Amino acid sequence: MKPKGAVAKSTKRGRPSGPAKKRINTRFPEDLADKIEYAAALRGVAVASFIQEAVAEQADRVIEAESRWKLTRDQAAAVAGMIAQPPKPTKKMLEAAKLASRHVVLRD
């Protein structure tokens, strides 16, 4: 099994190896298409392989960036304070917890 976000290795001609699983069609402005074709040629790979690699790298960066919270020092201190001294539960909070517990299954 390939690691998450892994791109299929390319063959000698620069095409992705293995069968394609899904097709995504897109259109590019002519100047961008020309740029992509030129860059792929400079690398000596097929355009499809070049696009797959570039998109996979960008997708990994976006997923990594969006998987974390970015807090200021003040915000981080406020969160740490709430963790250290959580507020007392209100009646509505206790009712919500009781309702939610009906949907939780504990397994061994």
From TrEMBL:
Belongs to the TacA antitoxin family. GO terms for biological process: regulation of DNA-templated transcription. Residues 10-24 have a biased composition (Basic residues). SUPFAM superfamilies: Ribbon-helix-helix (SSF47598). Coiled coil: none annotated. Gene3D superfamilies: Single helix bin. This is Uncharacterized protein (DUF1778 family). Keywords: Toxin-antitoxin system. Residues 1-24 are annotated as: Disordered. It comes from the Bacteria. It comes from Haloferula luteola.
